[in-house]
Design goal:
This protein is an alpha+beta fold. Helix content is 34%, strand content 20%. It has ten helices and twelve strands. The strands form two sheets. Strands 4, 5, 6, 7, 8, 9, 10, 11 and 12 form a nine-stranded antiparallel sheet that branches. Strands 1-3-2 form a three-stranded mixed sheet. β2 and β3 form a beta hairpin. InterPro entries: AraC_E-bd, GyrI-like, Homeodomain-like_sf, HTH_AraC, HTH_AraC-typ_CS, Reg_factor_effector_dom_sf, SmbC-like, Tscrpt_reg_AraC-type_HTH.
Length: 325
Amino acid sequence: MELHLSKPSTLSHYEALVWEAVQRVCHSLDEALDLQALAAPACMAPLHFHKVFRGLVGETPLQLHRRLRLERAACRLARHDATVLRIALDAGYETHEAFTRAFREAFGRTPSEQRAAARSAAQGAPSPAISRRLQAACGIHADADRVEIPAHPSQLFVHPGALTMNVTLEKRPAIRVAALPHTGPYPTIGAAFDRLGEIAGRAGLLADPSAQMIAIYYDDPETVPASQLRSAAGVTVSEGARVPAGLNEVCLPAGAWAAALHRGSYQGLGDAWERLLGQWLPRSGYRLAEGECYELYLNHPGNASEADLQTLLYVPVAGEAAPGE
């Protein structure tokens, strides 16, 4: 498949990495997308890299890959030089049925209906408009034999308006956390916090007025099945406190951190992370440093209404202007 690309000029660190990743996605339409390998050059966990990618491109790598395959399939259906099953297999679908469902959801008609409409149009018969492209903010599209992308990264990346997110930089000491590991869909971590509260309460950890609840997420939902996603529900503990049986000790390292305050329902945290890692970080001049991103809860549903919930999002950063550097 032919690609129309240009050499990137002066780009930010993350824009350059995402620009290269976009090209790799476009080159891999005939094979399964290796999301782990895609994130490797950025030296970032896939969980974080894919948020940066989505913030700049408007789609995750997997969403971009799937969309381009479907657009290519829509164009190839009009050529009548391959069976629907062959086109389905080339688009990454193992069965005709799975391809039909995905195609109908994307284009509003089945592959057979798409092919019939293209045949009627070629014969001059009146027919509904034939769509071969799907909506995309980045302007990248595929036809039967090539991928078309904007001539320069500045035309590719999504540039949102002024961000309403208020991000501050802090120099933070190392933090000890007594944590309960959790495996499963991230929205179910509440059960882990309930169990954490029981164990930490019996051990007297919650009697410390400085104790704060923390959530750490380790895996990328794009690359790891929901049932296998790893996270941890934790509570900060002082230096001399003993971590009770049933909990693991986790150390969040000292260093420079970018902090953003999210107000409101926990359901909005995913969007807040997308804006912090996907929009603010790539344009901030900072780089993601070693260490886990985490959420620190200033209150909880037991003592605040949903609208008044306050959650701090912390990202370890490095850069010339980072505190303490």
